[in-house]
Amino acid sequence: MTVIFSKKCEYGLQAVLYMAAREPGCVCPSEEIAKKLKIPKEFVSKILQSLTESGIVDSKKGKSGGFMLAKQPSQIRLIDIVAAIDGLDIFNSCVLGFPSCSPDKPCPVHHKWGELRSKAYEMLAAETMDKFKEKTIDKIGKI
Known about the structure:
Layout: H1 7-21, H2 30-37, H3 41-53, E1 57-60, E2 66-69, H4 78-85, H5 110-126, H6 133-141
Antiparallel strand pairs: 1-2
Helix pairs in contact: 1-3, 1-4, 1-6, 2-3
GO molecular function: DNA-binding transcription factor activity
Protein name: Putative transcriptional regulator
Pfam family, one: Rrf2
């Protein structure tokens, strides 16, 4: 169940984690990523193209083409991927969707959501791809 991020963002996070768990400089065809993560190939390609535009992923055309990380895993934060795909509005808007929600005119969950939102943002901004290699390999093995 998606709580905060779109399915596209979830798949983007998974794809980048997958590439970060591979050997440095490894070129991963979208078919391979789709198969390993059980994500539709066309969706993977679209997601990785948008991550290419944001400078997180790079692509290589041709027979041995595919996608690879454009930066070292230690330089890619989880929040970078979220920002590239979903944007950061979720960290600034009302979780209940009230347009006039603010500290002066809070919705019923404004203050509690604000605490959770801040903690989520801090965690996503602090964590980099290199920290998840072993957990990612283990998780993908169980898909």
